[in-house]
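pinned: reference chain
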Amino acid sequence: MRKIAFLDRDGTLIIEPPVTYQVNSLDEMVLLPHVISSLKKISDNGYDLVIITNQDGLGTDANPAFIYNNINKKMFEIFASEDVHFKSVLCCPHYLADNCNCRKPKTKLIDDYLKGEKIDMEKSFVVGDRDSDLELAKNLGIRGFKLDENNSWDDVVKQALSRKAKVERATKETKILVDINLDGDGKADIKTGLNFFDHMLHQIAKHGSFDLTIHCDGDTEVDEHHTIEDVAIALGQALKDALGDKKGIERYSHERIIVMDECKCEIGIDLSGRAHPVLNIELNREYVGDFPTEMLSHFFHSFAIASAMNIHATLTGENTHHQIECFFKALAKSLKDAVKVVSNQIVSTKGVL
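pinned: its structure tokens
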């Protein structure tokens, strides 16, 4: 299914004059800051760009069609010079008082354009500078972003293209919520009932720059095993879901070495879709705080399998706390490298990951 970015024109792509609210000449046509680079990122992420605009009285003496067309022509030339192209332009030429059925926030223009085609409702979105653009998004059942003094094109791109996933997993042993944003700022809300485990999961958020929420209500009165294992499964599934088709990601993290005092972790990752975990580690203590150290290996394997990840890690050191923490920091830094978007291609000769 297509992902579509529906874009207003005046006030969104080009600056709307504050007095007339109408661009009346090529001299008045000025692009908004960062709009070209922003639309390039959106396009490179597989979105079709479609303009939808209300043009009051288009074709009348107050808004001559040739001026509107000349402005569009010049605007398209500028965007095309940076390899940004629009699939279509949908325009309502009526005044508000005309009470037509095609003026935003009504959806007729888009309905007619799609002709019953199903689009990706979760990923598609509307960008504009007015409340009517947000109303259009609501009427379509997709996301909407409003440009204003507190929300620039850079902000919109970060919000629109954030790779997020939410996983809820419930068994007779655990009830888990994982919410992840791979393009976050390292914010974390971790509550698993195991304090040392919480501390380690915070490392993934902080050093991976992921926004991460993990809540687990587990049967720790029985054992820690179910909580640690099921969190690993849910977190791995959330990572896999957030990556989607993996288009554009680096895929690999190689030659990543993280040290912490006397400890060293050498780790390599391939987000190949083929789970194969290999861990070399010797730990000297049975517990660190409330975390049974034998569960580090089990977390590693469960997470790798759920996320369909090939991962190799070798961990050395003397202090068991340091060893485990060094591993989680290395995992975070490697994931940050591997999930980074570096192109608009899938890094595989097969064409899929």
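why pinned: The CA atoms of residues 69 and 75 lie 10 Å apart. The domain at 3-161 is CATH 3.40.50.1000 (Rossmann fold).
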